[in-house]
Design goal:
heterotrimer, A alpha/beta, B mainly alpha, C mainly alpha, C: mainly alpha
Chain lengths: 342, 297, 316
């Protein structure tokens, strides 16, 4: 487990905004889809910042990441703005979009084994980015590939370059994928469950590598996970998503100490912490699917503090004193968390 | 540290659907337009083949050297060949042998193939192994080479060609029959008949094969286009129908000599007839085999 | 890997032996007296002459002995003596082989290039383009080879005069010109299967995560298709193309007859018409051999295309 440094380098000198998602709504015209996958999502990542995006599967967190690279299905209907370094990704032409994918924003997926072409060598995977998208000469690309593998802690890189994906372990492959993601020297890295499939030791090593790059070259990191404790420990700020909406946005510290949305509180309550005597209390009900439509707050059916009015209350984000926001009608409660834990 | 998988709430019971009459419950079975056109064309061809002696304007072998290689006109709707024989009349008279010969050989091939396939699937063991080895060796002869081997031994002629093609296509039928019979044999109703004391042959002949019939028919319908092309090809090579027949493949062969003289009709009229019938059969066959639930191939 | 190769090669030899026996046995069992054909007319077929011919051609030996003699000769390169031309069958055949190989090779290039291109087009564009490709290629597959051959002769040969309608030509360029129409008539019918297999295989690859990853890395769509989709979709396409090439040898029988090309196929037809059994046997055997060799080669080469199969092979 990676612990957050005791002195979080908050307020970086250059608080330039890297990623700025404004009111992004995504609709997929699938069978039985009765609500948008993403509903007016707002999200920001600054240079050198590690931002967590947490939610259950189906909450829309991966869709948000894909939208940053405009990797959504052709028939998806998008509204809003996805600003990367000041330009709206949704309106880029094909050439600029490729440029964005090659140089500015990189993505690391959950399963490294399916991220690599099984019939091509590790070397091809790395150098094809350098040669075909960044225009490096072959010899230089090879040298760079070696350097990239070393940078993610792979020993005997020359040998690895000649190997096929099936000859490497999952942890090794994820390092290769990260090395490839860093090849274009991106400003923003989207890590979509990048460590979820790895064992704990490897996970810790990968997280350390990512953190190194974040401090080393001011890389912004959007860290997508279903593991709230990991996010709270690893990230500077955390967004919690539920049913396509951001229901809470806080600094990691504040979120962990004082969750304001009953869902966040429920998530924290349902995983055991060392030395915590309280019993584990799972969130009742099931995560909503795309064919569940909600007239009011989407969490109402599973919420321990819900009132009748919540069922028709249109969710809006409410500012909190500490700079965060929460999308809950009952901000009047001092500590919804206590109520949840009962 | 992962999120808990909470249990799904109980699904509310579905209200019982009122029983509808079987007519309205069935989805309407509409056949697509290309299917109708193809089926209509085949029916027309079959009718004309039967009525050829009545509808053909000339005798198929009436030679008129004055009208040699005539282009289509009022007297000869599709023109004439080198000997001045009316091409329309010849194509109409040739429809009979061109369609009946493939039909006969497919029937023969399916009798042999279904029998062997069922036997192999039912008996298993060395019988299955033997049938499989024999079909393997026959599959080592690509295309029509096995047919050509038989023809080279027993001589030309329509009967030899039909038998040779039937022998060549029977392993294909046997292989397919074996695969679906194996699946069918494993079903419990077969055991039930056995317990009742029904003999193996009786179960195969009266229960198993009839149950396979829809799939088999679908498969055979799909094969027919292939078989018709095989028959025509054999006649074209001179190993099938013999003069003075106006079987289409043979007509193409005879029309070929006129081709280099610039007369296209004698070869292309029967050639087009073959192509149209095969295309129509494929259009109809794909649809029918879909309806009969043929999955393989 | 060596075990797999050995098993495949052994299977090839057994099948070849069985097929050669079928070829020889069938012709041995043929009705009629081959000696009578050899002597010529029935009138001067005196018993003495027949007996002499029988002895010369070992026609009185039992089937097994004759088969053994024949297969032994085949292994030494001696295919017997043609009854029609009184030449060595090996000489007769070897003068015909290059033309047929050229025809098959030319046709293979045509159907592989056009078939794969149409398949890629179908997969990439989909919708209407896909429907048109299916319709046209299926139509071409539904027309017998000899009808396609004559239609090509009629329109591109006789009417437009672009291509010669008979013969095989001399020298590479002339030969290419002469064999274009025959190669086309062989190739056109195979486009349907090749384009279908290519399209299907590509669509499966499109759905793979690593393709999305490559696209997310900023690779252009053309390079994503070429380097990842097409490359990975190759294995079933190569297998299918190999099987089709193998079967093209049989197709030359019809096409060489239609275009009057003196190759193996037309030699077979002539041999059957003249009851020249040694030639018939030899050509049939060589065609089966070519077919089996190509299909076996495809089997053996498959692991080289897909490193995952290579791994499984070495583990097994």
């Amino acid at each position: 487990m990676v612990r957050k440094e005791s002195d979080p380098a908050k307020t970086p000198l250059d608080a330039e905004t890297l990623l700025d998602i404004e009111d992004l709504t995504v609709e997929l015209p699938g069978v039985g889809a009765r609500r948008p996958v993403l509903d007016a999502v707002r999200l920001r990542v600054d240079r050198g910042e590690v931002v967590g995006l947490v939610g259950e599967s189906g909450s829309g967190k991966s869709t948000a990441a894909k939208a940053v690279l405009r990797m959504l299905p052709r028939d998806a209907h998008l509204r809003g703005r996805v600003g990367v370094a000041g330009r709206d990704v949704l309106t880029l032409n094909a050439g600029d979009l490729r440029e964005l994918r090659a140089r500015r924003v990189a993505m690391v997926h959950q399963d490294p084994r399916s991220s690599l072409n099984p019939v091509r060598r590790i070397g091809d995977f790395l150098t094809e980015r350098l040669i075909h998208t960044l225009g490096r000469p072959k010899a230089q690309a090879y040298a760079e590939a070696l350097r990239l593998l070393e940078a993610v802690g792979i020993v005997r890189p020359a040998e690895r370059l000649r190997q096929f994906p099936h000859e490497l372990s999952g942890g090794m492959l994820q390092r290769v994928v990260i090395a490839a993601a860093l090849a274009g020297d991106p400003e923003l890295l989207l890590a979509d469950e990048a460590t979820s499939a790895l064992d704990v030791t490897t996970q810790a090593e990968i997280l350390a590598i990512l953190r190194e790059h974040r401090t080393g070259r001011g890389l912004g990191l959007l860290f997508i996970t279903h593991d709230l404790h990991l996010a709270a420990a690893y990230c500077d700020r955390v967004y919690v998503m539920y049913a396509g909406r951001v229901v809470e946005e806080r600094t990691a510290e504040r979120l962990f100490e004082d969750p304001r949305h009953p869902y966040t509180a429920g998530l924290l309550a349902c995983t055991p912490e060392l030395g915590d005597p309280r019993p584990i209390s799972p969130i009742p009900g099931r995560p909503p699917s795309l064919d569940d439509a909600f007239p009011g707050c989407p969490f109402v059916a599973r919420c321990p503090v819900a009132e009748a009015a919540c069922e028709t209350w249109l969710p809006v984000a409410r500012e909190l004193d500490d700079g965060g926001s929460v999308m809950c009608r009952r901000t009047d409660l001092d500590h919804p968390a206590e109520k949840v834990r009962r | 540290m992962t999120l808990p998988q909470t249990a799904a709430p109980p699904v509310p019971p579905v209200p019982p659907v009122p029983m509808m009459s079987s007519k309205s419950a069935k989805p309407a079975r509409t056949w697509p337009i290309p299917f109708r056109i193809a089926a209509g064309f085949l029916l027309l061809t079959a009718t004309l083949a039967i009525l050829a002696p009545l509808v053909a304007p000339y005798e198929p072998d009436a030679i008129d050297l004055n009208a040699s290689l005539a282009l289509p006109d009022g007297a000869h709707v599709l023109g004439t060949d080198q000997s001045g024989r009316d091409l329309l009349s010849r194509v109409l008279h040739g429809a009979g042998p061109s369609l009946v010969a493939p039909l006969a050989l497919l029937a023969l091939a399916s009798v042999i193939g279904i029998a062997l396939g069922t036997l192999a699937a039912w008996h298993g063991g060395w019988v299955d192994a033997l049938v499989s080895r024999v079909t393997d060796v026959m599959f080592a002869f690509p295309g029509l080479l096995f047919v050509i081997l038989i023809v080279s031994v027993f001589g030309d002629g329509l009967t030899t060609a039909v038998i040779a093609l039937a022998l060549a296509y029977s392993p294909v039928v046997a292989k397919y029959t074996r695969s679906i019979a194996l699946a069918e044999r494993a079903k419990p109703y077969i055991d039930a008949y056995r317990v009742q004391g029904m003999g193996g042959f009786a179960i195969c002949a009266r229960r198993l094969v009839p149950n396979l019939a829809p799939s088999l028919i679908g498969y055979l319908v799909l094969m027919f286009g292939q078989v018709l092309m095989g028959m025509a090809t054999l006649s074209y090579l001179g190993f099938g129908a013999q003069p003075p027949s106006s079987e289409w493949g043979l007509m193409v062969k005879e029309g070929q000599a006129a081709l280099v003289q610039g007369a296209l009709w004698p070869a292309l009229v029967p050639g087009t007839a073959i192509a149209l019938v095969v295309v129509a059969f494929n259009v109809v066959g794909v649809r029918i085999s879909d309806r009969l639930g043929v999955r393989e191939r | 890997m060596p075990a797999r190769a050995l098993r495949i090669t052994l299977g090839l030899l057994v099948t070849l032996l069985a097929a050669s026996f079928v070829i020889f046995g069938a012709i041995y069992a043929a009705p009629g007296d081959p000696a009578a054909f050899l002597v010529g007319g029935q009138e001067d077929a005196t018993p003495e002459k027949l007996a002499a011919v029988r002895a010369a051609y070992h026609l009185d030996d039992p089937l097994w002995v004759q088969y053994g003699d024949w297969i032994g000769g085949v292994l030494r390169g001696d295919l017997g003596r043609s009854m029609q031309y009184h030449d060595q069958v090996a000489d007769l055949v070897s003068s015909r082989v290059p033309t047929t190989l050229f025809l098959v090779g030319y046709s293979a290039v045509l159907f592989v290039v056009a078939g794969v291109a149409l398949g890629v087009l179908s997969a990439v564009r989909g919708g209407r383009v896909d429907s048109i490709v299916v319709a046209v290629t299926t139509l071409l597959a539904s027309i017998p080879k000899f009808v396609k051959a004559l239609a090509l002769v009629a329109f591109l040969g006789v009417q437009l005069g672009w291509f010669p309608v008979t013969g095989a030509g001399e020298g590479f360029g002339d030969r290419l010109h002469h064999l274009t129409l025959p190669a086309l008539s062989l190739a056109l019918g195979e486009l349907a299967v090749v384009s279908r297999v290519t399209r299907q295989s590509m669509l499966e690859q499109y759905a793979q995560d690593h393709v999305t990853v490559a696209r997310a890395a900023g690779l252009s769509e053309f390079k994503v298709i070429r380097r990842h989709v097409l490359r990975n979709a190759l294995a079933p396409v190569v297998t299918m193309c190999g099987l089709i090439i193998a079967s093209l040898f049989a197709g030359t029988v019809v096409v060489e007859t239609a275009f009057g090309i003196s190759g193996m196929g037309s030699l077979l037809v002539q041999a059957i018409n003249t009851h020249d059994f040694p030639v018939t046997q030899a050509v049939l055997l060589l065609m089966v051999l070519a077919y089996m060799l190509v299909t076996t080669f495809v089997d053996l080469v498959h692991p080289l295309i897909d490193p995952r199969v290579r791994l499984e092979g070495s583990a097994a």
